[in-house]
Amino acid sequence: MNNKKEVLEVRNPPSDDPYSMIATLFTKNNEISIKTLSLTILDLINQNQIKCDIDLNDSYEVGKKLASEDMEVMKRITLRIANKGELKTSETSAINLLKNMNKNKKFNLKAMAKQSNNTSIANKFEKDLNEFVKSVKNENEYDGKNYKDLLENGKLTGNGKELKKEWESFRDYLKSEDLCKKYPPESSDENSAQILYASCFDIEKEALKPRENNTPLTDFIDKDGYKLLNIIFNNALLNVSEKRKGDGIFYGVNDKYTIPGGG
After folding, report:
1. Global confidence as pTM
2. What is the mean pLDDT of residues 11-18?
3. Burial 157-196 (b: 16+ CB within 10 A, else e)
4. CA–CA distance, 119 with 221 (Å, rounded to integer)
5. Average pLDDT score over the chain
6. I need a labelling partner for 175 at 20 to 30 A (CA). Which of 31, 125, 168, 186 fits?
7. Is residue 23 within 8 Å of 200, Cβ to Cβ?
């Protein structure tokens, strides 16, 4: 194997599936969930469709339980929806969800966290999430021909298991300091893309350690923004009063973290 081919095989993702599908197919339960929504927002930040302003220099990591310090960090992370140009249907759904939740195009994560405790907003969030999930499924033909060779009756086929192994090897590269030093990303765009892939496997903080924090997305990850988004969205579902019946959708709510002031 020549050196250039070796580098490409290590650094290149094994398929061109969107981040939402990688997380859905090759992590637990093959479900489109809160995590899918958060990944879509990360991608929108990376595309500059959502601007990110962070008034915090040092790296940050959320503890085992939310504390007042975490809430203050949230206050220093501001998102502003720009959404210029053409977007995928799922991306538009995600942006509309954020607008409905925050009643504004510009908001900080602390304000959004407080909104997630409001029952009427939480109910609307759940409906918007349902629309987002439908959009992801439709545009990727998740239940149709696009993934029938990988997924059958909710389980990976032989081909799906083989591709999963390839993604697991790529995941090992993403979190390996030695491999990152040997095969580093060649641009800030590739660096951000690798951090997005790492987020699909919940190893984004590990992957960032040997890489540069040189884009708005990597800075958002450096401040544990991906985890904070998941906490806020999970909290919204915990505050839903109108329980949906019979549609078979389960979002895998995580009640490990709750935001003070909940309903």
Report:
1. 0.91
2. 93
3. eeebeebbeebeebbebbbbeeebeebebeeeeebbbbbb
4. 29
5. 89
6. 31
7. yes
